[in-house]
Structure formats: C-alpha cells, structure tokens
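An instance as discussed:

___
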Amino acid sequence: MLRLITLALLLASLAACSHLPNFSLGSPSPAEQEKTARQKAKQDLASGIGYYQDGNYIAAQRAIQGALNLGLTDRQDKVDARKYLAFIACLNQRQAECKNQFRAAFEVDPKFTLSPAEIGHPLWGPVFKSVREEQARKAK
C-alpha cells in the first residue's frame, strides 16, 4: 500500500513539473538564429512548391517569397524559387515580373534551364526563351 501511495505522489509531482515554465539560459546565438532561419526557408520553399502543385498559387507565391526573404542559401533552392515565382507570374499574365524572375534565376545560375516540358509550356516557355537569348547576348 505504501508503494502505491509513493507511486501516486511521484506521478503527481511529475505532472506538476510539466506546467513549470521552460527557463532558457539566454537567447539563441546569431549562428543558431541563422540556422533556424535557413531551415525555415527550406521548409517554406518546399511548402510553396507543394502549394503550387496543388494549384494554390497565392499561397505558393507567399511561401516561396517568404523563403527567399529568409535567405535561402543553396543555389538550386534559389533557382527553384525564382523559377516557380516566374511560373506564377506568367500564369497571372504578369509578363514583366515573369521575365524578372527568370533573370534573377540566371543571376544565381548562368546555366539555368528548364526541362523540355517546361520550355514547351505556352505561357512561360516563350518568356523563358526570350530571357535566355537576352542572357546569351549579354554574355558575348
């Protein structure tokens, strides 16, 4: 019986501890904050691409732009973000913005290209080709 009472008191004590505030030893270091922001940026990019694939272009644009604002560090992630933002702009008949996003992708990776299916798309394919030709002329 004494063991049962002791166990009950121990469980009650543990339950009470779960309500105590979590005291930290200080704010995260700048390096930890940067790492967290990079992880959040990657998650936002992945979410944005998922929204895009689901046809939710407003949420996709918001998430992808948020990822860029948080500071994507991986070159391919930056290119992908710009590519999807270009696609969204073209889908919404914002040709100038579409071109600017493709230009930004070329700034990150001068060898940036689209898949054959993407290049063949009737909305953004011609815009991509014109920006690619513009970039080739600049390189000469």
Notes: Residues 90 and 139 are 25 Å apart (CA to CA). Confidence is low (pLDDT under 50) at residues 6-11, 17-23. The first helix runs from residue 2 to 17.
